[in-house]
Every structure is written in structure tokens, then in C-alpha cells.
Amino acid sequence: MTKKQTNGAEALIQGLEKHGVEYIFGYPGGAAIPIFDAIYDSSIKLILTRHEQGAIHMADGYARATGKTGVVLVTSGPGATNTVTGILTAQMDSIPLVILTGQTITSALGKDAFQEADVFGGTAPFVKHSYLVKEPNDIPRIVKESFYLAATGRPGTVLIDLPKDITSAPCEATHEEAEMDLPGYSFPDKGKAVDIKAAADILNNAKRPLLLVGHGTLISKANKEVLQLAELLQTPVTTTLMGKGAFPENHELSVGMLGMHGTAYANRCVSNCDVIFSIGSRWDDRITPAKIEKFCPTAKKLHLDIDKAEINKVVMPDVSILGDAKTCLKELLPLIKSSEATKPWLKQVNQWKKKYPLNYKVHGGLKAQQVLDELYQITKGEAIITTDVGQHQMWAAQFCKTHNPDQWISSGGAGTMGFGFPSALGAQLGKPEETVVAVVGDGGFQMTLFELSTAAINKLPVKILIIDNKFLGMVRQWQELFYDDRLSGVDMVGNPDFVKLGESYGVKGFRIKRPADIKRTLEKALAYDGPCIIHAEVIKEDNVFPMIPAGATTDDMIIEPPKKKLAKPKGST
Amino acid sequence: MSIQVDNIHTISLHVANKPGVLLRITLMFARRGYNIESLVVSSALDGKFSRMTITAQGAPETLDQIIRQANKLIDVVHASEHNDEEAIAKEMVLIKVKLSKTNKNEILQVIDHFKAQSVDLTQKSAIIQAVGDSDRIDALIDMLKDYGIIETVRSGKLVMARGDQST
Ligand SMILES: Cc1cc2nc3c(=O)[nH]c(=O)nc-3n(C[C@H](O)[C@H](O)[C@H](O)COP(=O)(O)OP(=O)(O)OC[C@H]3O[C@@H](n4cnc5c(N)ncnc54)[C@H](O)[C@@H]3O)c2cc1C
Ligand SMILES: Cc1ncc(C[n+]2csc(CCOP(=O)(O)OP(=O)(O)O)c2C)c(N)n1
Predict the structure, then answer these.
(1) Which of A82, A114, A295, A386 is paired with A204 by a 20 to 30 Å CA distance?
(2) Which residues line ligand 1 (CB under 6 A)?
(3) Torsions phi, psi of A37, nearest 5?
(4) Could you tell me if residue A558 is inside a domain?
């Protein structure tokens, strides 16, 4: 008997299996039916979401928690365009995703066929790479290339647009025989010895060094090397929002996050250091001023990055090392001399820590900061925290200290509201043994709350902590501080009763109304075996401090609520 | 902000001949505020690769960055800027001019002077073909303006690195 002929969709799914894909997050439709049909017989589990945006953020959360490539499958037209926000979110934060989109048949392309969208053209600015498949026998090669591109070098998103006639047509090519054809793709690994030597010389002579540790350190799994470097040099270490977890925030050398809402002491370090060494951070505009020459003007700047296009993009470094963080740090470490020279600097840093601690007033109603602080105390910093975007995100960054890699999941570059909850579901699927808490605002949660179904059906015991201030708090804060408190379009009047909402999906609810409720309720919710909502009704009008107005320098940092009117910030947003 | 006319850069790219590569390159130039003046694309020797020469106007500070970002595109094998010392840059032009009995000889003299050719000749018009440096082509067009140019088509710059260097 002859073997059944494999079609394009089956070749695709076989390729995914060969790449060890456990889950596909998806939503079906006409143009994608052949692919859903091929999943039917495969070992891969399909997670049917309630919206394509939910699917892609779940795949993203899965990728962030596990380091593996997330896979999304949607139909053509509106199905594909519903993933665009998620593609941007992942691409901005260098997250490896493969996005499969169904497409109308090739003979109809360009004719405004039913549910046709030029997904290849439309997403070109947001992807690391993409394909529109025109020949079924190309599928095994394209799958191989896609997984390779998504996960190597600087990771990112790869989209494969799959016309229905191509996925339905016979495919003779196989995964085993397919050869990648990527003549234009390469990435550095080892840095140049001269650059590493030059960096070592500068670090060895530094009196007030600062390590700026970014997401690239996590991608490269270089956290051990960073710890060694910090301890040898006896230097304070700050992380970006995306770098949280790359250096234990409970370590005595940690100064926490820098930047717009970073700690005052981290930002004081930025203003006063004589050498700043960025390891896998891209000097984002949340941490650097609009006038870049004002950024640590007296410090020598060192930049280690895998992406050549990041070097000289924002900061003109004195020395740059192009390569993988772990590989390069391994070469650098033997050249570093342990030093006593930083003692006075560390003393100064510790004084700043004492002078400007992160704190909040415990009286005057329920404070988001207190809820998050107690969450941190109870989970001992061992839970995976995902966040949405806004004030709660910044408070979580400040008070939920991160000790280990892959425990902090937040949309940094795109700042996508609606990310927090679905990404927690993906993280929970990837790390079933761990406690996963989604910290979300009342605004952002309502953007993707329909995934409560997905949580309930798949029994994903995610704890959804809603910091409900009944406002789009982050925008309200800007309006209060910089626009004479003229509140425009920020009132969340009409919020549902979140506990009842959860119940209607079969998701348990808890309420925190007073500071006295926090500990008891959080403990109960964390012990509960299943998904649940913790509704924390916090005071309505609180602001995140410290704050550096957009575009301003670390010297302009506002540490406490200002008494006088502030000028409108000049930075981007 | 006004961009000075002399902020014109010539960038050559060696790219894998794959769908979408031109789209990605032009998107990147546009996003960085670069206005493409001319663009020449042709398949390289074996058909698997293409050559592109782009002349574009934009701030010199961002050029280095644009070239890095171009090199980062998966299908770009190599991108670099070229200047006159290291590279040969030539353009071709077709110019249709009005002809009359009285000016015909004069025009033929101009053609001769510029080592151009007339590739189509009728009673009323001629098509002149010229190859050379952009300045020289500008000069030829200038000369012919007085006789009445009907239309011109320019190829845009073609660039090749001199000597042992590869483009
Ligand atoms: C409301 C809001 C407020 C924010 N406030 C702040 C703030 O106060 N402070 C702050 O820090 N951020 C803040 N952010 C986040 C900010 O927008 C950026 O996302 C963040 O600063 C970027 O961090 P990063 O450069 O470490 O990571 P990414 O943007 O992920 O960049 C990673 C870098 O590492 C490189 N890399 C990748 N792999 C490797 C490897 N193997 N080896 C070496 N390098 C590698 C990449 O090329 C890239 O340059 C805020 C975001 C929001 C939404
Ligand atoms: C999709 C999207 N739309 C708009 C914004 C702009 N934005 C940033 S923070 C914010 C307010 C978020 O409010 P909420 O979710 O209630 O959180 P809070 O700031 O109150 O903690 C808004 C509207 C965004 N980041 N993402």
C-alpha cells in the first residue's frame, strides 16, 4: 500500500513537531482550516483562545517564561490583523515567535478576495522576517528557517503567510532534507579581543562604575557571569525594566531599576558614575534623556550588544563589544582585577539607598504599593509576575523584586495594554509548577478579559490581581502633573463587578478593600487551586514616584509629589 | 528641517533575490526620513542575488545607522556607502528633443561633443542616449534645454567599487 500523500499543512505541522513545539495558540477560520485539520492528528496541543490578540500574547508569555519559541496560528484577513498588536509587542521586546497566518488562495491574491489582507506587506515593519509561501515544497525549508531566525542572534518574530491552496497541495519535500538558504543572515558570537581588552582596562580603572543590565543578559542566559563581574568589580548594578531578574534585586550590590520610574538611588548612580557598562540593553528613551549628550556626561560608556544596529544608535560608546553577552563576559572576566577602589563609591550608593528608599504611606486608604509589597513578601519573590501597562506595572517593578531570570514578564518596548493577563496564561502553560500572578490595571484587564474562558477551560491556576483605581491611572497622572489636572478620557466609570464577572466564567473571586485584608486575602488566593481574580480596590488618585519627566535627565528626577506646577515634558511620550 | 542638496548618498546593496526584499529596504529608508532619489535593481550574475544601487537624500548622521539597519535585514548580504574616490558611478539617460530644420545640425554637434548617440531620429524629434557621470549628464540636459526637451528618462546611478574591492 502506498503511503498517504502529505500535504502542505501536514508538512508544516510535522515541521513544528520536529522543532519540539508543545502548544499552538490559535483561532480558526476558512483559510486556516487545512492547518487546523493537520493539528487533529498531531502531538501538539491546540489552545483555542477567545481572540487572536489573546492567542499571540499567550504565545509571547509562554516564550518569555520558557525561552522557547511561541507559535500562533490564525486565519486570514481579520484573524491575521488581530495579531498585529501582539507582533509589535513581541518584536519590540525581542521575543521569539512564529506566527502562522492562513491566506486566500494564490490565484485570488491581490484581488480583494474574501478575507484577503496583505499581511506580508502590512506586517513587514514589525517582524524580524516573514514569508508568503507560493510553493508547497518550500514549507519544510521555511519552517526550519523561521525557527532558526526567531530564536538566534537577536530574537524576534517570524510570520509565515500560508495560502489555502498551498497548504492543501501535495508536498514532497521533507524536514530532514530541507536546507536553509539564508545567505544574508549571520550574528556575532565572540567579541573582538581588542574590544574586550579595552573594556577591561576601563573597568579596572573605574572608581565609580555602574553595570546597566538589560534584557539581552537574560536572552543570553548570562546572569551568572554578570553576578561574577559585579562581585569582582564591587560595583552597583542597575537593571532595565526588561532586565529585571538578570541580577538578584535582593543582592547588596543591586540598586534596582533605573529610568523614568526607577529608584532614586539607581538614577543617582547614573548621574554620578565614571563608567557605565551596558550589557544587553538598548539605552531606551525611558532611561536616557532626549539630549543624549546630557546622559552621564562624565562617564566612559561601554556597550555590549549582539545587534550591530544598536551600537552608536542612541549612545556613542567609548568602547563597544559586538557579540553574545555570555560568550563575551566569559572572555572579559579573566581580565578583571578585583578592586578596593570602589569602596567610597559603594558607601555613597548605600547612603542614597538610605536617603531615598522606595516607600509609601500606610495610612489613608488601600495603596497599590502596599498590595504589591505584600505580594512580594508572601511569594518571597519566587512567583512569576506578569504585568499589564500603567501605574500598577511601575509599582510592581518597584516593589515586586525579581531574583531569578524569567520571573518578570512585562511589555516594555510597546507598552501594550491587554498583555498582562493572556501572557500569564501562556507562562503558566510553559511553567505549570510555578505560581503565576498577573498584575493588571482595571483598564488594561478589560482589553483582554475574555480569556477568562481560556483560563477556566484549561484550568490554568493564574492569580489575576486587579489593581482597580477606576482610572486609566498612568494617563491621569500625566494629566494631573503636566496638564493642570484637566482629566480627559481617563475615567473608568462603568467598570463591572470583577468578582461577579469572574464567577460567570467559573473563575473564583476575592476582594481586598482595606489594608488589613491584604495579607489574608492574598494568602487565600495564592493557596487556591485554580484561576482566580483578586480585586484590589485601591485609592483612586495616587501617583508613581520617583519620576523623570519624559526626555529629561536623571538630575531632573522628581522624588516626591511636587508642590508646584510642572512644565510639559519634551520627550517622546 | 531643510535637507541640504549635498546630503546625497550612494548606497549599494548585495541582496538575496527573495520576495519582499525591496519592500523592506524602502520601508527602512522612509522610516528614517530618507528620500530615495534613484534606485537601480538588477539580478546579479547567478540570479540568486540582486544588486541595488540607491541614491538617497538625508541627514549624514543617520546614514551609518541606516546602513547597519539595512545589513540587519535577513535578505541583505551586504550594504555599504560609496564615494567617488573608491567607486565608479555612471548613469544613463534618454532625452527626447524637438528637431527642426534650422537646429538639427547644432543638436548633432552637441551630441558629438558629449559623446552621446542619437538612437531615434524623426522629422520632428530625436532621442539621444548618453552614459556618464551624473554631472556630465546634467550638463548635456542643460545644453539641450534651449532646443526644447520633450521628455527625459534617467537610469539612476550604477556603482562599482574600483580595483580589488568588491561592491
Ligand atoms: C509605562 C512604561 C514605563 C517604563 N518605564 C521604564 C523605566 O523607568 N525604566 C526602564 O528601564 N524601562 C522602562 N520601560 C521599558 C522601556 O520602554 C524598555 O522596554 C526597556 O527599557 C528596554 O530594556 P532593554 O534595553 O533591557 O531590553 P530590550 O528592549 O529587550 O533590548 C534588549 C537588548 O539586548 C540585546 N541582546 C539580545 N540578545 C543579546 C545577546 N545574546 N547578547 C547581548 N545582547 C543581546 C538586543 O540587541 C537589545 O539591544 C517602561 C515601559 C513602559 C510601558
Ligand atoms: C493598547 C494601549 N492603549 C493605550 C495605551 C496608553 N496607556 C498607557 S498606560 C494607560 C492607562 C492604563 O490604565 P490601567 O490599565 O487602569 O492601569 P493603571 O495605570 O491605572 O495602573 C494607557 C491608556 C497603551 N499603553 N496601550
Answers:
(1) A295
(2) A 93-94, 154, 214-216, 219-220, 240-243, 257-262, 280-282, 284, 286-287, 305-307, 310, 324-325, 389, 393-394, 412-413, 415
(3) -65, -40
(4) no
